Amino acid sequence: MKNPQLATILLVEDDPGHALLIEKNLGRAGLPYPIVKFTDGQKAVDYLLGDGVGQTVLMLLDLNLPVLDGYQVLKIVKNDARTKMIPVVMLTTTDNPQEIAKCYELGCNMYLSKPVDYEQFTAAIRNLGMFLAIVKIPG
């Protein structure tokens, strides 16, 4: 069983500006979990299969990452018995239908395209945060 005091959201985003906006706007939505951030896919996987196993309640995952890209991270997470139940939200600028389909085939739970416009981006993340605040997460 997860320790609610240690439960975290894992944010895997290599753009520091996007990461800051995501963290700030999720906080404004009142999510009760701290955010653990990584800028490359390999470090996120290492954390998730190490210290983060059993404590990560949700992953926000970009596609275009150094070392391991979002597809590789998603595949690892969804093929490991310890992590396959973690909801994964793809949060990326890519809106190519083939890439969206590939993410769902690999097991993502939700795919959101990051708007380019600042106001639309912050509103989208705030709305995501309000949605996540009421959704029941496994564990």
Overview features:
Rossmann fold; single chain; alpha/beta
Protein architecture, described:
By secondary structure, the protein is of the alpha/beta class. The chain has one domain (8-134): Rossmann fold, CATH 3.40.50.2300. It has helices at residues 16-28, 41-48, 70-78, 97-106, 118-134, and strands at residues 8-12, 35-38, 56-61, 88-92, 110-113. A five-stranded parallel sheet has the order 2-1-3-4-5. Strand 4, helix 4 (97-106) and strand 5 (110-113) form a beta-alpha-beta unit. Helix 2 runs parallel beside helix 3 (70-78). 28% of the residues are buried.
- CATH architecture grouping: 3-Layer(aba) Sandwich
Cα-atom Rg, whole angstroms? 14 Å
Average pLDDT over all residues: 89
Largest sheet: 5 strands, parallel
Determine the CATH superfamily. Answer: Response regulator
Q: Which band does the percent of strand residues land in?
A: 15-25%
| Total discrete domains | 1
Query: What best-fitting shape do the alpha-carbon axes yield?
Result: globular
- The secondary structure category is alpha/beta
State the total count of DSSP E strands.
5
CATH class: Alpha Beta
Q: Describe the strand arrangement of the main beta sheet, using strand numbers.
A: 2-1-3-4-5
**How many distinct helices?**
5
Could you estimate the helical fraction of the residues in percent?
Answer: 40-55%
CATH fold name, please?
A: Rossmann fold
- SSE succession: EHEHEHEHEH
From the N-terminal CA to the C-terminal CA, the straight-line distance is 7 Å
Task: Return residue spans where pLDDT drops below 50 for at least 5 consecutive residues.
Answer: none
